[in-house]
Amino acid sequence: MKALVAVKRVIDYNVKIRVKADKTGVETANVKMSMNPFDEIAVEEALRLREAGTVSEIIAVSLGVAQCQETIRTALAMGADRGVLVETNAELQPLAVAKLLKAVILQENPEIVIIGKQAIDDDCNQTGQMLSALLGWPQATFASKLKISDGHAEVTREVDGGLETVAIKLPAVITTDLRLNEPRYASLPNIMRAKKKPIVTTTPEALGVDVTPRLIVLKVEEPAKRQGGHKVGSVAELVDKLKTEARVI
Amino acid sequence: MAALVVAEHDNSTLKPATLNAVAAAKEIAGQEVDILVAGKNCRAAAETASAIAGVRKVLLADDPAYDHGLAENLAPLLVKLAPGYGHLLAPATTSGKNLMPRIAALLDVMQISDISAIVSQDTFVRPIYAGNALQTVQSTDPIKVITVRGTAFPPGEATGGSAPIEPVESTGAAGLSEFVRAELSKSERPELTSARVIISGGRGMQSGDNFHLLEKVADKLGAAVGASRAAVDAGFVPNDYQVGQTGKIVAPELYIAVGISGAIQHLAGMKDSKVIVAINKDEEAPIFQIADYGLVGDLFKILPELEAELERRQ
After folding, report:
1. What is the pTM of this model?
2. Given the DSSP bridges, would you call strands A57-64 and A82-87 parallel, antiparallel or unpaired?
């Protein structure tokens, strides 16, 4: 079966973000960009399914500016077979991303779609759920274990109380949580090989999807800073302060 | 316009996060807040919901299809109920996060995730970049589908109300998914997201066994026990202990971080706590910059001392 993974280009998780002075967003000029870490886990899981003989082909899709091609190349270097770039300079919100992915999926007919549970930039945690809704497919979100057998997937999910396992029919959308796997690094030969793998470019217009944002960002601000940094010298002093100064115990 | 809150419950009792979502709904819709309790044999949970102060009515959808909160079965029910409401809200817990985007997509609207403040009926504040920035967004959609960051909205009164309970017709099972099993952690301690005091351990704890040192202090304080991602990834404790950007968001009166360096992802989950204590042997650890009280030293010495001191002064 075919697997499709979606990979988002985000500010690298190690970068300390800066809010722009005009409050329109965060600074992205000259900032290191990487693949959303949860999407790396999605690519890795697809690779493992291919290595297990369950998946025959892996298509990596990214949506956004032309540079998203680099994110697709990263997925190809990890081992994905080919890429699809939906190129646009428009701001893409999760609903629009879900509609675009649906359009690509209807062309590609994968039986399993794996994507990160959330992107570490907007922290929305929506796209996978929206995509499965639009397709009328089942969803298994926050996956920490995935087992596929004849037309079904058994997925263990990380939930607030612990773990929960669901059985879903394929085709389905799976969203990844942190402990599903540890993504591999791309080796140099594989990075070279990835340069020759095909990437098809399309656009929202060509896919017939209206991507007009539904949420208008009025402003982006820095949160209030905490005044910390005070040290105490002993356990007795700590307990004393908590009792008499902070009055929390 | 009225607001509908999707209750989180286990069929017999409501999860505390429901009260935070109700508080947010009241801020938006005033007296016109309804609660949906959908589950299997969940009348008891509906009765708890009807006792919440200031609720207009409780919708009760009782059907085996709604057991375990499967999004594939619940979303069509919400879509059917949506026309009567301007806002659909749920707590930003794993259940709410799983369900609400599915509803939003079926209604062709954008969800507003994890709101931390309400500016007006269509404008909300939400954290982005692990809480390192706050975004104010205005929704242009006719129905606002929202998940609520519990720590940002003090819970409403759980008692004092007597809202009528109205049964609603089931939309049945979609036949796409089935619940198999749950492995839920059992603990006598308070739940992380509603605990007044939390003590969390990080990589510095060195092993899962060493968490008993934290538990002893937790017992003295009536505290919940949490962990950083590093401690969970290392297998010291299960995933449901995790506090942080992708784990639980907490804001207790007192948060004690032990052997936690203070990665951005962890701070995102606890920096709104009222008082933060950090215990770490590395005095350069970033956690100290946000801690109200920092204690530099060996946690294996400090934790037993802390337990003894709390015992002595109780």
Report:
1. 0.96
2. parallel
